[in-house]
Design goal:
This is DUF5076 domain-containing protein. InterPro entries: DUF5076. It comes from Stieleria varia. Pfam families: DUF5076 (PF16826). The chain is mainly α. The chain has a domain of 47 residues. The chain has four helices and two strands. It has a two-stranded antiparallel ribbon. Strand 1 and strand 2 form a beta hairpin. Helix 3 packs across helix 4. The longest helix is centred in the middle third of the chain and has 24 residues. The radius of gyration is 17 Å and the shape is globular. The N and C termini lie far apart (51 Å).
């Protein structure tokens, strides 16, 4: 059986920027989505609320998807974006899978983002 686990490239800007931060990594495995999220980054490093910042990032990703599909498949960017947003809203209202995961524990450095005692 072929090994399809081929990581995507790191964007050139992220390669060049010593301050670049990976925010999400997603895989389709065992019939579903599995992801690692850098939850807490905006909580500690920005005046923007964490949920609002993730919403902006999801919107930016949707724009990148519509641009990419226009470039590689000739699809209309606006129609594609509308389709992505429609699917997103439908999935939010009527989820088709369960969402669970393991989140940071006290042994995980990510918990430092939620420790406000040093602020």
């Amino acid at each position: 059986m072929a090994d399809n686990r081929k990581p995507l490239m790191i964007p050139p800007a992220a390669e060049a920027d010593d301050n670049a931060i990976e925010m999400a990594r997603a895989w389709i495995a065992e019939g579903g989505l599995h992801c690692v999220l850098n939850v807490g980054h905006w909580h500690k490093n920005s005046e923007t609320s964490e949920p609002h910042a993730w919403g902006i990032m999801l919107a930016d990703i949707a724009q990148h998807i519509s641009n990419a599909l226009e470039d590689v498949a000739g699809l209309d960017r606006r129609e594609t974006l509308n389709s992505v947003v429609e699917a997103f809203n439908t999935e939010i209202k009527h989820k088709t899978s369960q969402h669970s995961g393991q989140w940071p524990t006290m042994d995980d450095p990510a918990t430092e983002f939620w420790d406000d005692t040093d602020s």
